[in-house]
Design a protein that fits this description.
eleven-stranded antiparallel sheet, alpha+beta, 4 helices
């Protein structure tokens, strides 16, 4: 993005926000050449990791203390997504921590500096093996900041909740975590859950013709981790009378029925 171009975004971006650019590859796009939701989350994770490293609390620092960042929740709002060959600019900044949660915001811009959407995430600091949580200020007091600026979203999204038992009879999707789903922390990466959510939406929204799905909103709360070979079952129901706009998803372990995540996907 040309630095001389004026940004066109409805979101308040701090002047010290970090900026990262990603070229969109064909393998990251759908049948309409638009960026997959899970690929967007991957770029968000990369930008967050790079910015954390620039602040002195990236993977290399955490590895020395046997710690890691765990994503607790994501709230994504999209007007549109870039396409194959485009450049996506991700601006990100930390809003500091409150109790155990470290908040981080993102704004997405196209090659001309126009807004594509935004996201808010909450992160936890944990032991790499046991996943026991730590307070950021007690581990890295010289590197962290307390909660400061307001969220870029004026009205915070309500966290997705579990579905009533009557919707947990027939899963929309059944998957087993494989080698390519596992990240460096040893569990299924957050981006894979987003991909599975979109597969669940597709199972209901495309009964006859296969085509692109434009995502408007994506909210997810991660409840428990999934390890290699674990089975996951995604259940869902439409939240609106129009049938086909907002899908509520409840993901459970196949062996214990223990919740893995709760999500909401709204399509345009």
């Amino acid at each position: 993005m040309d630095g001389s171009k004026r940004l066109s975004s409805p979101y308040q971006i701090p002047p010290d926000a970090a900026e990262y650019r990603f070229g969109i590859r064909g393998t990251e796009t759908d049948v309409a050449d638009h960026l997959f939701l899970h690929a967007l989350l991957s770029m968000m994770q990369e930008a967050a990791s790079l910015d954390a490293a620039a602040c002195g609390i990236g993977p290399a620092m955490l590895d020395r203390h046997n710690l890691c960042w765990l994503l607790r929740r994501s709230t994504v709002r999209l007007d549109r997504l870039p396409g194959w060959g485009d450049t996506l600019t991700v601006k990100t900044w930390s809003r500091g921590f409150k109790r155990l949660v470290w908040d981080r915001d993102f704004v997405f811009l196209d090659s001309d500096g126009n807004s594509l959407g935004a996201a808010v995430t909450g992160w936890l600091l944990a032991d790499q093996q046991s996943k026991r949580l730590f307070r950021p200020d007690r581990q890295f007091a010289s590197h962290i900041q307390k909660a400061g600026s307001q969220s870029i979203f004026q009205m915070p999204a309500k966290s997705p909740e579990p579905l009533p038992d009557e919707y947990l009879d027939s899963p929309l999707l059944v998957c087993r975590a494989g080698y390519c789903d596992i990240d460096r922390v040893g569990h299924v990466n957050n981006t894979r859950y987003a991909a599975w959510c979109m597969d669940a939406v597709a199972s209901l929204s495309m009964p006859k013709e296969f085509g692109p799905i434009a995502v408007k909103c994506f909210d997810i709360v991660y409840v428990s981790e999934l390890l290699v070979s674990d089975e996951i079952r995604l259940y869902g129901r439409w939240a609106d009378e129009r049938q086909g706009q907002v899908l509520l998803i409840d993901a459970r372990r196949g062996d214990t029925n223990k919740p893995v995540f709760h999500a909401l996907v709204e399509i345009q």
